[in-house]
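Before the break, one more example. Copy the sequence into your notebook; we will annotate it together after we see the structure.
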Amino acid sequence: MSLIVQKFGGTSVANVERVRHVAQIITNTYDQGNSVIAVVSAQGDTTDELIAKAAEITDKPSSREMDVLLSTGEQISMSLLAMAIEQMGYPVISLTGWQAGFLTESTHRNARIKKINTERLQNELDKKNIVIVAGFQGINRYDDITTLGRGGSDTSAVAIAAAMKADKCEIYTDVDGVYTTDPRIVPHAHKLDEITYDEMLELATCGANVLHNRSVEMAKKYSVKLEVRSSIHSDVPGTEVKEVCKVEKMLIKGVAMDNDVVRVSVIEVPDRPGVAFKLFSSLAASKINVDIILQSIGRDGTKDISFTVATAHKDEAMQIAEEFRRRHHVRGAGRKQHQHQHDLHQRDQDLGADRPGSGQKGGQRHPRRILSVESGRSFTIAKMAWRNYFGKEVSPCFFIRSSFSPAKEGKRI
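Here is what the structure looks like once it is written out:
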């Protein structure tokens, strides 16, 4: 008898029909002689609706109360799914994150799992129960509810699989595996039969919404056998995520795009050893994940630093950057958010015109932006493999182009 952990996303349990379909998938696995733990996300757009409800009350809700509010979405899903399975005549029990033994850090909205007390889960399995667990949540040492951040139910499922030494962890989504790029944008994207942990981690970190990046990281660390499958076409094989793949000699595996990022720029930072470290250590202390970091060539004893963070962390990152500016006497401060690619290019032109030797006509100068934040898109090409639509290997071409003169032809590499 095997232990199978199955995770179902929000679209998989979005309505009554899909909840019943998921119940059928779970009970079919149970009928094959397996023990089953299912982890569920909130239904459909429930999380967004709860955030909107909070915004109707206050524009600055406390992180603690937001965690209490958002955790209810998964609890609705787990109870409805348990009811559907119970109606089919199977033994089942639903558990919240804390009932399932999730102990997390004290950080709200993006807590990390410290450990899982598996005693309750094992007791329920010993009773031959199907166990339904609310993903995305746990409790901290103060017995406060915490949430794991967007996509945290994936991490919940992999964490349970690792703690319980499950034979397999199946992640059910609205697509039937991992593709070379988003099939909803590129209709002819190629589905991958397998992908390495490192490749999947790169894609997940940089915008692919199939798996939460922390879940992939954990799966790699504890060697969890992971498979991404479709909850709609559950009989179709998915994509296995593993340590080593059969595919070799490929340069690119897939392309991902992330629309949910902002770029924060701090201009004219004192060019002294250790100054940048103070900025990023403050961000790390606040559990803000920094992705891309760019630093200009020093001039007049200063340098510019730009970095990207998730849109959800924009305000907090700006507060830290403002405090950093005050402490290190960076002259002046400004703030601007751009919504379109044209705005991003215009901002680059502004910064270029503001530097010595820019050759700007008429002697006019743009106002110096010492601190700014911009919305944008992050594109990432994961290394290791690229296939065209016929399955053949191809050699990708890259061009380096100037953001100051985008109309000019770039250099091919």
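Residues 63-87 form the longest helix (25 residues). The radius of gyration is 24 Å. Try to locate both features in your own notes.
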